[in-house]
Amino acid sequence: MPVPMRGGSGGAGGAQRAFPKGTVIAIGAIVGVIGVGLVVWPFFSASWILVVLFASALIANGAVLLARGRSIGGILLVVAGVIALAFTGATARALVSFVGFGLIAFGALWLAVGLRFARHRPSIGIVPGAVLLAGGILALLWPGVALSIAAVVAGLVLIAVGAAIIWGATRPRRVDPGATTIII
């Protein structure tokens, strides 16, 4: 998300206020620290983040159902979210297994379709499907390792994003904001 510059023309014809430089630097630092946490403690932090996001989604959807008067479905989702939070290890393994089965199914589908085109471009027809299949099988055999690898990769990406946010907030700006186009 771009940080609007002071004095630049904002969206719908009005001037937008910029985020204070310190706030943007703090956000970049927080993103970077989360990335470091994922790299240093990959399984613990990734499983915790994964479970909290999953449980939060269950609880939020349950609350929406309750607000709409669908009490049984809402109560079931809220209870499922609380149970997911109570059993973080089992929930993380179940989610990784679910993703593993999905990768296997998608890899098999890719191979089934890709084999028809393998004569023309074998790398496009076979390699992605084989990689998806292998990733799914590895995720099912070693869910902790699969989650740790995903966490380290995500952590490295978050460190780079945090550094980019900080760099973008601290570098001098010499661009005319009225002459730029930002695509989100």
From TrEMBL:
Keywords: Membrane, Transmembrane, Transmembrane helix
Transmembrane stretches, start-end: 21-41, 47-67, 74-92, 98-117, 124-142, 148-169
InterPro entries: DUF308_memb
Pfam families hit by this protein: DUF308
Protein name per its UniProtKB record: DUF308 domain-containing protein
Lineage: Bacteria, Bacillati, Actinomycetota, Actinomycetes, Micrococcales
